[in-house]
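Task 17 of the worksheet. Students: predict the tertiary structure of the chain below and write it out as structure tokens. Keep your answer in the requested format; marks are given for formatting as well as content.
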Amino acid sequence: MRSFSNWLAFLIWTLVFVFPVQAEVSYSQVKESLEGRHWDPPKSYATLGEEEIPHLLSIIQDDYLPNYYRFRALRVLEHYPTPEVSTFLESLLQPTAPPLLLRHGLEAYASAFSADQPKAVRDLAWQFHDHPDPELRLTVARAIRTISPDEFDLLIQQEPKDWVRQAALQ
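Model answer:
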């Protein structure tokens, strides 16, 4: 009897630790991870993993969801610097997009890809350097600041709003 219980314990241990079953992450799980008054982005992405990326992309594209879901999903994407995320963000950041979406999207893109793809970040950010929205121009300046100090200085000199210049320099 004792050998049977040892064998059963070994079998259970093997199934649990050697062949763990990965449950697929659902859209609702990803959406729930973006909820909460005291939302914490690192905790959100650490609990689900890369299999959440397609759901995050769906959430960002859903115009019927409240913006906080969409912007939080963009913040989580910062932690996945994959080609899929890069392509998605580049297609999202078009001049016709709303300035608030551009701001959050550019922040995510710069955070995810500044280290590995500085030229791509610089090129994408630069196309919005003269946008009418001053907060977007501030986001552009912050994205370019560490990548290209010379262009950052040029942006600061050309910036018409004093508060944008001051905030970009901090």
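Marker's comment: The chain has a mean pLDDT of 85. The chain has two domains: 25-80, 96-170.
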